[in-house]
Predict the 3D structure of the following.
Amino acid sequence: MEPESGTVVLLGAGALDDPSTSQQLAELASGPVVVLPTAAAFTGMEAAVVEVAGRFVELGLEVEGVMAASRADAQNEELVKRLDTAALVWLADGNSLHLKTTLRDTLLLDALWGVLARGGVVAASGSVASALCDPMIDPRGGAPMIGLGLVTSVCVVAGDEAASGHDEMRNRTLGLVSPTMPVAVLAPGTGLTLSSQGPSSIGGMPDVYVGGRPVADGLSAIGSF
């Protein structure tokens, strides 16, 4: 599927701790927000929705949580239909492997493509940002694996392994990813926006590697999607 005029935003962990991030997201997609807390199924979906919703309600946006915890939920037409009017879908951080297995090849993943096709925004931070890509990074050991495929022009390291002090896992990832695939390391406070207009940074500029080596102008190595 093609994203057409939409935008995917990939951010380092804890992105919404900075109020300016939610402000920038709201500017990209001025309209209703859907929070998808699937990755938080084991840690508290309602709490994840409440935490995120507060950031956008303060900006005057309408926010709704779509509580899809399982593949059955992700195939529920009535539940999925609630994404039809979303200008922005925020995927709460949490267990990226659960998110992938729940959404892959479902109506809910099709609905995310639909948001992008009509010019909306799909955004995530931390390990869930990695899950939107193909390949994504396995949080258990740093190896590349099949992801959800909304983004195929860059692989992102955005979970704990992106933070300082996790050089060993990060280096393992850089050594395992295809040498032609750009890898963006999204430390907290850094991020990427990807659209048909090309990539740009949001917050701080992430470090980008190709073939395990840093690229001076990282954005030049990354395609649109």
Remarks:
- The CA atoms of residues 87 and 120 lie 5 Å apart.
